[in-house]
Amino acid sequence: MRLSPAGGVRLAGIDLSQPLSSDQKDAIVAAFVAHQVVVFPEQSLSREQQFAFAANFGEVEAHGAHRPADKAGGKAGDKRYAVAHVMTNLDADGNPTVRLSPAANYHWHTDKPYRARPPLMTLLHAVELPPRGGDTEFANTALAYESLPDETRRRIAGLRAVFRPAFDPSGACADHPLVRTHPDTGRKSLYLGNHATHILGMAQAEGAALLGELLHHATQRDFVYVHRWRIGDLIMWDNRCLLHRAVANYDVLRDRRIMHRSVVRGTAPF
Ligand SMILES: [Fe+2]
């Protein structure tokens, strides 16, 4: 059952803490390609089990140096790091704090587009949630591309967007096609959002304005699926044809929110 015209499908009755059969894996991949966001309700799985589930779909990024205890970082293949990483608004003492909640998550974005090989898929498992709110929104940028006037499609064909980490303006950047082609479906979609700073070979202001105009188009409500989380939901989404954002519609200074996150590597956009 498609959850909205923009995408999303719910797959119940699969226990993701257990190894998948090849039929289950095929069904999940088919649902992912067809609906871009797959919701698995009522899942109970450890961070290690989540990492193992994600590994069905490609190379999973190792648990990085995101938290003080993990400053040493990790290498893929090292068992200590074969776990989903923890995203939380709690500080080291377990108290809600706005400081650790990355502001960039509240802007429309695709994950890590400033990499040469940006992620294919992100998985989030809801472990603790605010009593209400804390939604995640997804915008389908294939629908957005397909609804552009022909003239605009011609104007943006062949352009490359430059991406730089919004939280680290001095960080390395990458450029990718503004209109990318989905490797599984052949569908074209817009690749932009927060971290996209300008268009290669175009005046900075002109490129930024074009990106702003396209982002406005891409995130209109008709193209958006809003996920209202329930504890135990595990969702996986396609970073190649979706933008997403966290909605700050909960009290980040009072309510606890803990999610476990895994990221599957992708290939260079084309
Ligand atoms: Fe994200």
Q: What is the topology, as strand order, of the major beta sheet? A: 1-2-12-4-14-3
What's the architecture in CATH terms? Answer: 4-Layer Sandwich
Mean pLDDT across residues: 91
**Structural class of the helix and strand makeup?**
alpha+beta
Number of helices: 5
Based on DSSP secondary structure assignment, what is the total number of beta strands? 14
Q: What portion of residues belong to β-strands?
A: 15-25%
CATH topology: Double-stranded beta-helix
Task: Supply the key terms.
270 residues; alpha+beta; Double-stranded beta-helix; 6-stranded mixed β-sheet; 3-stranded antiparallel β-sheet; 5 helices; 19% helix; globular; binds fe (ii) ion
Give an overview in words.
The chain is an alpha+beta fold and 270 residues long. Helices cover 19% and strands 23% of the residues. The strands form four sheets. A six-stranded mixed beta sheet has the order 1-2-12-4-14-3, covered by helices on one side. Fe (ii) ion binds next to loops.
Strand-helix topology:
Layout: E1 9-10, H1 22-35, E2 37-40, H2 47-54, E3 85-88, E4 121-128, E5 136-140, H3 141-146, H4 150-156, E6 160-163, E7 174-177, E8 179-181, E9 188-190, E10 196-199, H5 204-218, E11 224-227, E12 234-238, E13 242-246, E14 258-264
Bound molecules: fe (ii) ion (FE2).
What is this structure, in a nutshell?
By secondary structure, the chain is of the alpha+beta class.
